Amino acid sequence: MQAVILAGGAGTRLRPLTYEIPKPMIDVNGKPFLQYIVEWFKKYGVSDFVFCVGYLADKFKEYFGDGSKLGVRIRYSIEEQFLGTAGAVKLAEDLLEEEFFVANGDTFLPVDIDDVREQFKKSKKAGLMVVYDNKEKAAENNITVDENGLVSAYGKKEQLKKGDQLININSDKSANYQFVDAGLYMFKKDLFKTMEKDKFVSLEADVYPELIKSKQLFAYKTSIRYYDLGTQDRLELIRRVFK
Fold this sequence. Notes:
- The chain is of the alpha/beta class.
- The chain is 26% helix and 27% strand.
- The chain has helices at residues 33-43, 57-64, 84-91, 113-123, 190-193, 203-213, 232-241, and strands at residues 2-7, 27-28, 31-32, 48-53, 73-78, 99-104, 107-108, 127-132, 143-145, 151-154, 160-162, 165-167, 180-188, 217-222, 227-228.
- The strands form five sheets. Strands 5-4-1-6-13-8-14 form a seven-stranded mixed beta sheet, with helices on both faces. Strands 2-3 form a two-stranded antiparallel sheet.
- Helix 2 links the parallel strand 4 (48-53) and strand 5 (73-78).
- The chain starts with a strand and ends with a helix.
């Protein structure tokens, strides 16, 4: 199986650290944060990676190269302009298998990758989202799961960025959000075939609402906490946890 890593953002909330290094490449106890993600996937036999990069893309190439030093294959899809999370996947379309994982390059989730893949196949849906039950109150809930195990509502408090513009996600204010989007997904390639290439498209604002409407987004529930690099405080937490 294949993992697509979304790592094209500028990491503005972690400046000045990210003026010279992209957020997923920030050092965590002696190696880039992104390396922990790659090594976790490799543990489950995933050895084919596509890095969707943009900001300071050369930093990824300089460190990881073709992936051979980690015993994996890494190829790069480089955005000349920011295309959003779904637009980045579309740009990499020629490198994609028929089914693949997508992971945020700034989020580490030590979940059973084999089980995620098995549940995705059993679901026969176009997409899967891993959702955290938030027992540690790591973030604000933003996911509702219905009685059939499908994501039925998606919200996001933080605004998305499209260059200098901010994009609001139309959150359902009446929804009973029970879970948190944990930053790990699986998709069928067919989902991206009708998208226009080189156009800004967001998973959060464009794709998830359509999948929810068509009942095609399966929720994989987990009690395993994820860790993300969103802020300086979270970075310090990660450095403590990963020691």
